Amino acid sequence: MSQPRTITEKIWDDHVVTHEPGSPAVLYVDLHLVHEVTSPQAFQGLRDRGIKVRRPDHTMATLDHSIPTTDTRLQIIPDEIARKQVDQLRINCKEFGVPLADLGSIDQGIVHVIGPELGLTQPGLTVVCGDSHTSTHGAFGAIAFGVGTTEVEHVLATQCLLQNKPKTHEVRFEGPAPKGVGAKDLILALIAQIGVGGGTRHVFEYTGEAIRALSMEGRMTVCNMSIEAGAKAGLIAPDEKTYEYLKGRPRAPRGADWDAAIERWKQLVTDPGATYDRTTIVDVTKLEPMVTYGTNPGQGVGITQAVPDPANIADASQSAGVKKALEYMDLEPGKPILGHPIDVVFIGSCTNSRMGDLREAAAVFKGRKVAPGVRAMIVPGSEKIKKQAEEEGLPEIFRAAGAEWRQAGCSMCIAMNGDQLSPGQYSVSTSNRNFEGRQGKGGRTFLASPATAAASAIKGAVADPREFLV
Amino acid sequence: MPAITKFTGKAVALPIQDIDTDQIIPARYLKTISKDGLAINLFNDWRYLPSGEPNPDFVINKPEHAGATILLAGDNFGCGSSREHAPWALMSYGFKAVVSTSFADIFCNNSLKNGLLTVIVDQATHRKVIELAQADANLQLTIDLENQQFVLPDGSSVEFPIDAFSKKCLLAGVDQLGYLQNQMTAVKGYESRVGDRVRSM
Lengths: 470, 201
Prior knowledge:
The complex is a heterodimer of chains A (470) and B (201). With 470 residues, chain A is α/β, with parallel strands linked by helices. Chain A folds into 3 domains: 7-163, Aconitase, domain 3 (2-Layer Sandwich), CATH 3.30.499.10; 167-237 and 266-286, Aconitase, Domain 2 (3-Layer(aba) Sandwich); 291-462, Aconitase, domain 3. In chain A, 31% of the residues lie in helices and 16% in strands. In chain A, strand 9 (167-174), helix 6 (183-194) and strand 10 (202-207) form a beta-alpha-beta unit. The longest helix of chain A is centred in the N-terminal third of the chain and has 17 residues, at 80-96. Helix content of chain B is 32%, strand content 16%. In chain B, a hairpin with a 5-residue loop joins strand 6 (149-151) and strand 7. In chain B, strands 4-3-2-1-5-6-7 form a 7-stranded mixed β-sheet. Chain B starts with 5 loop residues before the first strand and ends in a 7-residue tail after the last helix. Chain B has helices spanning 21-24, 44-47, 85-93, 105-114, 123-135, 164-172, 177-181, 184-194; strands at residues 6-14, 70-73, 97-100, 117-120, 140-144, 149-151, 157-159. At the A-B interface, helix 2, helix 3, helix 5, strand 8 and helix 11 of A face helix 4, helix 6, helix 7 and helix 8 of B.
């Protein structure tokens, strides 16, 4: 009998090409996703060294970060620097033979949305991308993590990375989620509990009833924000929901290959008796919808709670961090966050831009109006999602409410493309980061779920989505 | 890449916890296709007033801190995105090392691949060295990579951890791609053994 192993260890062991003493392991990468922002210098590196992309057939590129979300973007990208970056990815993909989901393609979208959508993201794979939210793909039971541009070049050149074996950290969500508490609330609650450095050097394995109950989209939301707790990656053992999601997708196995794949994927469980380096338990039964008040994703509270008072935080540096955050956010300690006026609502990003997220928002918007003076933007994660939402009539609901329905991309999550807050504005955003200036210089972000964001758009202030539940 | 063994430099303290990569360099400056020219946008939103003038209250802008090469930062430095523009910006500004009690994983990996040293010290040393830097703008600190020693002006020193392989590459001034390229026989063997788990085309 072999030693009991965690799912992380099984996938790791399957991908070690070689491991010499004194060096990190050479880890094979099954799927390399590429976007315009973190790849140009890597392709240039290949060019300078005179080397090719070793496995273009294990590589997939798309445009998402710096592209406009306007309806005229196929005709014009007004920002000259962004246009040059977009064109550079096109040049690089052509020169090196890498498939590209370009603007106008049905496959285009946020890199972490299209990987699963195309069926490229599968259980048991190693997936990397020059993007920290690569952890999203762990929802399928893959080891998926973000890398820098030097490592993007390593993968392009060799299809491998030099890696030290990560530690494992079980995150068990115990108990059923109360009504109105969804995937975004679970992950924000975890980060509030363990902090933005709580997962460093570890791969999370999410377990528990509340995780099993989530849809694949919800699981992607949870895994997406693993990096916001500092984790190397986050994953969930595959199950029937995983197989159901993948079946029939363009790049998923077919026929006899599908049956063989299911047999392999069924082995991707943590064995009884296997141990994790750490375990964290989150009591789901006590949760309510979450919202952040501060300038990192760990500074979050239940929506009916008050903004914490730094004077009551024992740890000096943590207290200083909250004080600095509240100054930036211009929030008063001890006051409720519910009812705080807002200017913008952003529903989108690799965290929350999938069909389930849009339907959740539409259920709140239906028959209601966005509060006067509030701008509400809804940005689908991919061209396919955009099409499907249109088939379901969601844009009509959004537009009737007074919200904008835009083209697919990262948009105001990262505010590189002109979709941004003005200094001092407050947003409720379904994205993943509330860092200072993340959504535009001087902008202030409250992170929350699509339901909370939509409810806040209606109220013109941070609102409890449970009021709108039928 | 130039080899790094040991150097002494002027330190500046920015003792804020969880400094994320959006503070190190905001995303709107990532539209470049080059690694160069990022120094001007390092800590952009802290460093400049809304008018575009340098913020005189931001520590790095103070004339007495000009020429600093060692940044003393708070816990969990470099959290957030995977942008390698963060170490590129720090290095092009002139920093050779960042000293903290902890670093975010991707930032640490990116830094070591570019020759920016991430020096992890204990809380007490961290506190002490920040106090020293705040009291003396000309505080000189030494980082001895070969012996993994962080040396204070009084001659006392603490050992810092560093990944052995990264250290070997930094001391020799070689990047890590060469090592991977030398593994291609093993990689080809692996590929013929496992086949294609997925194909993008």
